[in-house]
Amino acid sequence: MVYPYGENKEALQRRLRRIEGQVRGIQRMVEEDKYCVDILDQISAVRAALDKVGLHLMRDHIKGCVAEAVSTDQHDAKVEELVDVVGKFLKT
Question: What range defines the domain where residue 41 resides?
Fold first, then answer.
C-alpha cells in the first residue's frame, strides 16, 4: 500500500533527522551539566518540531486515507480511527 505522505517522504525524513540531532544535543547538554532552562528550551523546540511532523502526517492521512474511506462503506470505521489518533496526538 502506498501512503499519502509518500510524496513528502524525503522532507519528513529530513525533519526527523534534524529532530534526532536536536535530541542528541539535549543529551550532550545534560552530560555537560548545562543550565536547566536552556535544556528545557531545547526540549520545547523538539516537542514543537515533532508536533509539526505529526500534523503533517495527520493532514496527509485525512486527505488520503480518510477521504478515500468516506466514499466507501468503511467511513464509520475510518472516522473512529481518526478520532482515536487525534485523541492520542493531543495527549500531554
Answer: 8-90
26 assigned to some structural domain: yes
Set of cell numbers at residue 75: 467511513
Place of cell 480518510: 66
The count of structural domains within the chain is 1
Whole-Å CA distances, 31 to 35, 47, 83: 11, 20, 40
Could you tell me if residue 58 is left (phi over 0), alpha (psi between -120 and 50 degrees) or otherwise beta?
alpha
Cβ neighbour number for residue 87 with a 10 Å cutoff: 9
CATH code: domain of residue 36: 1.20.58.1000
pTM: 0.80
Model confidence over 62-79: pLDDT tens digits?
A: 888 777 787 888 788 888
